[in-house]
Amino acid sequence: MTSGMPTVHHLFHLQHRRLLPESMWSGYISLRSRCYGQTQEVSGGSQAACSAYKVITDGMERLMATIIRRTTAVLASVVMLAGLTACTGETANDDASSANEATYGSGGQTIKIASGSENKEAADVIKSAAEKAGVTVKMDWMGSLDVMSVLKNGGDGYDAVWPASSMWITMGDSKHVVKNEKSTSTTPVVFGVKKSKAVELGWADASGKTKPVSTADVAQAVRDKKLSFAMTSATQSNSGASAYFAFLSAFSGHSPITAADLADSNVKTQVKTLLSGVDRSSGSSDWLKDMITKDPDSHDAMVNYESLVVQADKQLTADGHEPLLAIYPSDGIAVSDSPLGYIDRGQGSEEEQAFRKFQEAITSDESKLGFEKIGRRAGLGGRVSDLSDSTVKSSFNPDWGVVTDASVMKTVQFPDSDVITAALTAYQSELRKPAWTVWVVDYSGSMQGEGYDGVRQGMDLALDPEKSKEAFIQPGSEDVNIFIPFSSRAGEAVKAEGADTRGLLDAVDNTDVDGGTNIYDGLSEALRNLPGDPSKYTVAIALMTDGMSDTGDEDRFREEWGASKQKPAIFPIMFGDADSTQLDALAELSNGKTFDGRTGDLASVFKTVKAYN
């Protein structure tokens, strides 16, 4: 190392020097000298001195992490605002938005809508409709199960509901609060298959023109090890659920399916074979699309909305990659009908009148054109109604296998709510591809209190068979879960197979919090606890931390990652003073996703992460 180059340790030393007043600095150095030798290894010095030194150092590093995180956030906001102003000469528009909510329009009565997250892609259409109606629309983006929960709770303060499919209203509206329900657009759930793979399988010719493909044909390609695909969880996302019910209908030979079909061993075997082709799971259709476009070489195909296959193809072709071809199973597909309905909680006439104005605007000819521009269908019977518009024509591109008439819309019907519930339970517990999840969890001293309680509750909600069943994330009979605690170093791994997770959860409860934060040693240990045959599982690493990590082992971890044949997705969970820069880099490295547990209920974040594997 060049003599003038400061080491990481020297930089931390200088930062600590700035944080302590002069009167305390000499005492701090004295404690450090009694605890550590020149090699930075613990010597035989006073244990009390070591404890005091570590407490002070831990506190300063947490303070530094907080300062860095907050300063970075402020600077980012200033730079973004300055950039917008410099480039446009204008301030940001009046529409407020974040990852989980957005507000459109600025006048009249406000209506609050519980909306499926897939409607984010229709932001421009929603904004125009709100302005045309003269109302303010507050959208809360959520998953399909969350929409269902809102309705089971009688509306939870919302004025309207806008899920991806009527199925979730059927499942959730036990109190019969939804009325004036109306479809806003439709999009079928299809297989988006790489053009070269579709040609190889005989599903398309060299020009990209597709041929009829049945669900059984897809299952055979999976059985022959010629096809794998990414798909959202059937219990957490509408696109995954819709595809799953289409698979059940295809193999049973009719729709809607019945309870008897779920007990049919032949049907279950065929569905299980097809789902064994899943090589990546997700809790979000939109995130699945983004994952494919970020790393197009990693997957042959995805199951998703036709509209999101279109959006992916726009990005892929712009980046110089081959497109996905839309494959519509010839024996039936599920269609998302995107219904918007009023939640009658006895609010009064103002809210209902505002809802009616917005519903009229969002189903107008102008909005229909807007939906078709982003790849959704707005014509009768599921056809595309306005191919004269150049943007619509470019979205429904026949070179991407897209069929614009209603000939491919052989729609399956959904069963009643009891059969839906039984089918989703069967999916989660026995039919989906088994999951291998490594939980790398921070047990450093700073986790004492709220963080420690949140981890225990979160792991319990995610892995206790009875509690996790409520959210349809219960461990399956062939799942593997591994718990690796870490602080300054990684602890011993604890493994649970199948639904017997009690020993693992006992380890979660009985591990003490102490020491520093070293996420990279924990991740290195995770790499040593991956499956021998990863083709049998969907594999992921969930990483939870509340602080800025020591970086001494980062290079070693990255070398081990580069040399590893398995590169599973890493899903970091931020809590407390966690450094988003470090965690986002790990998510980017693995094509994963960072979850923010710094506000709200940390335990619920664990449930959300489990939905991604």
If you had to describe this structure to a student in words, what would you say it looks like?
It contains 24 helices and 18 strands. A 6-stranded mixed β-sheet has the order 1-3-2-4-12-5. Strands 6, 7, 8, 9, 10 and 11 form a 6-stranded mixed β-sheet that branches. A 6-stranded mixed β-sheet has the order 15-14-13-16-17-18, with helices on both faces. Helix 2 crosses helix 3. The protein is globular and about 65 Å long.
Short structural description:
This protein is of the alpha/beta class and 613 residues long. Helices cover 45% and strands 15% of the residues. The model is unreliable at 1-23, 28-46 and 64-97 (pLDDT under 50).
Question: Helices, strands, pairings?
Answer:
Elements: H1 8-19, H2 22-35, H3 47-88, E1 101-104, E2 110-116, H4 123-133, E3 136-142, H5 144-152, E4 160-162, H6 166-172, E5 178-183, E6 187-194, H7 195-200, H8 215-223, E7 229-232, H9 238-252, H10 259-262, H11 265-275, E8 278-282, H12 285-294, E9 301-305, H13 306-318, E10 324-327, E11 335-336, E12 339-343, H14 349-362, H15 365-373, H16 390-395, H17 417-431, E13 435-442, H18 450-463, H19 465-469, E14 480-486, E15 494-497, H20 502-510, H21 519-527, E16 538-545, H22 554-563, E17 569-574, H23 580-590, E18 595-596, H24 602-610
Parallel strand pairs: 2-3, 2-4, 7-8, 7-9, 13-14, 13-16, 16-17, 17-18
Antiparallel strand pairs: 1-3, 4-12, 5-12, 6-9, 6-10, 6-11, 14-15
Helix pairs in contact: 1-3, 2-3, 4-14, 5-6, 8-11, 9-11, 12-13, 18-24, 21-22
